[in-house]
Amino acid sequence: MLRVVGALADHGSITAAAAALGYSQPAVSQQLKRIEQRIGMAVIERVGRGVRLTEAGRLLARHAATVSGALDTAAGELSELRGLRSGRVRLAAFPSASATIVPRLLADLSRRHPGVGVTYLEAEPPEAVALVRENRADLAITFSYPGDRVDPHRDSAAGLVVTRLRRDEMMLVLPATHALAGDGAVDLGDLAEENWIGGCPRCRGHLLELCGHTGFTPRISYETDNAAAVLGLVAAGIGVAMLPALALDSVGAQPLVAIRPTRDRDHRTLHAVTVTGAAGVPAIAATLRRLIALAAEHTAHAHTAAEHTAAEHTAAAAPLAAPAVASPASSSSPAGRGN
């Protein structure tokens, strides 16, 4: 009933209020009478051929928007609760998210909304975005490198709804015995003469562009999509690498390596991609909300963990002799995991 008072305050007459609400004039008049009977005070008074709100009516009008908004929110939440007793979400994400964000998201959804069925498919960003566009996935977790001149993600996600989740710091991975392993942030140019181990194709493309801005072309002597293999090669003294913090989190601590941020704090951006209107589907909306919340919780942890790991690895490896360094072999790219 308070909607009637609010509409009268907004539109100035019973006729206009009725039109705005989609009610008949008699229906509006009847609701006003019920309000007056309930509070024992007049809410309107006649002025010439029209009406205006009394002081009591104006007081009610001030509260009408708040109360109506709360009722709308409650109705939406009740509708969502009713919808989340069942439903499904088809989720896609890249490999390092598979071992970090996705398990936490699935466990959280299972606990909060046990009636919602979730299916999961691992896919790198271009493929994951295509799955959403082709209606084979409802939500994709993706990443992009916003500073790169060429951004495949921007083009592939055109016309879809892209929600920013968080930054994912790019970290340098060095042998623990490296001359720069004990430093803080490392200038990329100081690694221009090193042998590099390339990560996933998109990561390699970003490395090439980043090094190009710095003034050199990295000598990528080894390539693998497997983040654990990258760390193993670095630990053996084969070369240096750059990996996202999330990829490092996905494989855990590796002895004999040092993790360092770049001097300019290079990063990639994590996104959630859905089709327009997906937020109106209760199960997808709930999944997206939980994903945003979990990504925010992980933001501070990811960078702190990487810095902490760097200190631990450097300290643990300090007494050890430098491992033998193998001569570069021809580039190899075993089938494996992206980053």
Automatic annotation (TrEMBL):
Compositional bias per record (Low complexity), positions renumbered to this chain: 312-339
Keywords: DNA-binding, Transcription, Transcription regulation
Positions of region (Disordered): 303-339
Limits of the HTH lysR-type domain: 1-54
InterPro entries attached to this UniProt entry: LysR_HTH_N, LysR_subst-bd, WH-like_DNA-bd_sf, WH_DNA-bd_sf
SUPFAM superfamilies per the UniProt record, alphabetical: Periplasmic binding protein-like II, Winged helix' DNA-binding domain
Superkingdom to which the source organism belongs: Bacteria
Pfam short name (any one): HTH_1
Family per similarity comment: Belongs to the LysR transcriptional regulatory family.
Protein name: LysR family transcriptional regulator
Taxonomy of the source species: Bacteria, Bacillati, Actinomycetota, Actinomycetes, Micrococcales
